[in-house]
Amino acid sequence: MQHERNGTSSSSACPGCGLVLPVYSGPTHAYMGASAACWRIYGQTSTLAWGPGDGLPLLRLVVDAYGAQHPGKREVRAVQSVAVHLMGLCLVLERGAHIEPEFMPVRRREPARTTLDLHWLEPPDPNGTLTVRGPVLATGRDELAASVEAWARDVWAAWQPHHETVRGWLDRAAPRDC
């Protein structure tokens, strides 16, 4: 699904993915660069992706594709967020990990293995050609899974100039035995 960029005065483009949607005055994320309407669709999509799935961890891909596609502005939280989401895409799409995101991680008393030197990665333009709209319009679990995977792969491919940096962060943070 390509970007929809021909909007009317009652629609606007999401600053992250470019998806043109009717104006919505709901909440947005504190540091992700997403319109309220796009953030709303993300919420719907993440709900659809919840639960057991065959093959790829759908919720992980939804969370990471959306986070990487909506990087926000250059600030510490956005730098960390984009790095984590890109590492998540790499883990699943390149390294075959089948992990779901931890929404309420258990506090661990063990020291961190390493400190990463995270820095701002200039977002690609365009930041993928597929958006969160594809998964939310999917009918049935198989179509949802295919749409989420295509979207995640599209976003990961858009960040190709930074793949080596992301792989390096991932190698230092989570060696390939994960």
Can you describe this structure?
The chain is mostly helical and 178 residues long. 43% of the residues lie in helices and 3% in strands. The protein contains six helices and two strands. Strands 1-2 form a two-stranded antiparallel sheet. The protein is globular, with a radius of gyration of 16 Å. Mean pLDDT is 86; it is low at 1-8 and 103-107.
Fill in the keyword field for this structure.
6 helices; 2 strands; disordered N terminus; 43% helix; 3% strand
- N- and C-termini, Cα separation: 33 Å
- Note the quaternary state here: single chain
Overall outline: globular
* Average pLDDT for all residues: 86
Q: Which regions have little confidence, pLDDT < 50, spanning 5+ residues?
A: 1-8, 103-107
Helix share of residues?
A: 40-55%
Write the element-wise H/E pattern from the N-terminal end onward: EEHHHHHH
| Helix/strand/pairing category | mainly alpha
* Order of neighbouring strands in the sheet with most strands: 1-2
Percentage of residues in DSSP E strands = under 5%
Largest sheet: 2 strands, antiparallel
What is the rounded Rg? Answer: 16 Å
**Counting H and I runs of at least 4 residues, what is the number of helices?**
6
Number of strands: 2
